[in-house]
Amino acid sequence: LQPSLFEGWNTSIEDARSLGKHLIISDIAVHQEQCQENAYYFDVKNPSTLCNLIQEIWDTLPEGYDKQAEIQAKELYKREIQT
């Protein structure tokens, strides 16, 4: 969960992406640029949208460690680094 109102490229998002985790992040432009996959966005100016989003997706998110998602995320990172 990254509810930032403003900031630059976010290392906690990069950490989560590198492990293939799903993200719940504010809809600021830098977050939308940084994270295209496994991300759920909420309106940073409306806290109830965050609450509603969590209620909506909580039961659909995978629990615990997902080895396959982590492998896929590492492969994606390797390709991104090479380009």
Structural commentary:
The chain is mainly α. The protein contains four helices and two strands. It has helices at residues 11-18, 29-34, 47-57, 67-82, and strands at 23-26, 39-42. The chain has a two-stranded parallel sheet. Helix 2 (29-34) links the parallel strand 1 and strand 2. The longest helix has 16 residues, at 67-82. The mean pLDDT is 89.
Name the descriptors.
single chain; 83 residues; mainly alpha; two-stranded parallel ribbon; 49% helix; flat
Ordered list of secondary-structure elements with their pairings:
Blueprint: H1 11-18, E1 23-26, H2 29-34, E2 39-42, H3 47-57, H4 67-82
Parallel strand pairs: 1-2
State the major sheet: 2 strands, parallel
List the strand order in the largest sheet. 1-2
Number of strands: 2
How many H/I helical runs?
Answer: 4
* Helical fraction: 40-55%
Structural class: mainly alpha
Gap between N and C termini, in Å? 28 Å
Beta-strand content estimate = 5-15%
Q: How much is the radius of gyration in Å?
A: 13 Å
Short description:
The protein contains four helices and two strands.
